[in-house]
Write a structure and sequence with these properties.
Layout (H helix, E strand, L loop, with lengths): L1 E8 L6 E7 L11 E2 L2 E3 L7 H13 L7 E5 L3 E2 L8 E8 L14 E8 H5 L4 E8 L2 E10 L2 E3 L1 H13 L13 E2 L2
Parallel strand pairs: 1-7
Antiparallel strand pairs: 1-2, 1-4, 2-3, 2-8, 5-7, 6-7, 9-10, 10-11, 10-12
């Protein structure tokens, strides 16, 4: 079991969503990627929600224990082909003032509060090419600060946006395509 925290903060007309830039590590399949705080369950985790809360605290010092839980999204298969299990996203609201983010060295290279309008802005639409087993795949994404939100995080974000009735501009792009 794995879980992520989609942490929102800000005034209702100026909401921002917390993203992390994962540290670059050879042992991490998602090394260097933009993501939501989260990870795998550990022995002491009572639920997927507990995983999301613990991971947000460990990765960026977000305290979600008393945050308003807005809901859980449907579980998402972790690819390739669901072989890595499923991940449960949880959406939290932290209040009108986004708290400071303190990236945990070694796990998180940086952390950001990205304003929601940025995610829906057509000008931030992008792609990323990913090499896997001798093939290159192109994935849709959203550019932010020299990085691209893509892959699993982009799938969760797309699912959430569709649930809100506000599909992202990238929602009409192919989920992935082989380019060579």
């Amino acid at each position: 079991m794995a879980a992520v925290a989609m942490a929102l903060a800000g005034e209702p007309d100026a909401l921002a969503l917390c993203f992390i830039l994962r540290a670059t590590r050879a042992s991490d399949r998602w090394s260097g990627q933009m993501a939501f705080p989260g990870g795998k369950a550990e022995a002491g985790d009572a639920s997927a929600r507990a995983v999301a809360i613990r991971e947000a605290r460990e990765e960026v010092d977000l305290r979600l224990e008393h945050a308003e839980l807005l809901g859980a999204l449907p579980s998402v298969s972790v690819r390739p082909a669901g072989t890595l299990g499923v991940m449960q996203p949880f959406v939290f609201y932290l209040g009108a003032e986004p708290p400071p983010l303190r990236p945990h060295a070694g796990e998180v290279a940086d952390a950001f509060w990205i304003p929601l309008p940025h995610l829906w802005d057509e000008r931030n639409r992008g792609t990323i090419d990913w090499e896997h087993q001798g093939q290159t795949w192109r994935f849709p994404g959203i550019r932010f600060g020299g990085h691209v939100i893509w892959g699993l995080t982009h799938r969760v974000l797309t699912q959430w946006a569709e649930g809100l009735g506000r599909p992202l501009p990238t929602a009409r792009d192919p989920m992935q395509q082989r380019v060579r």
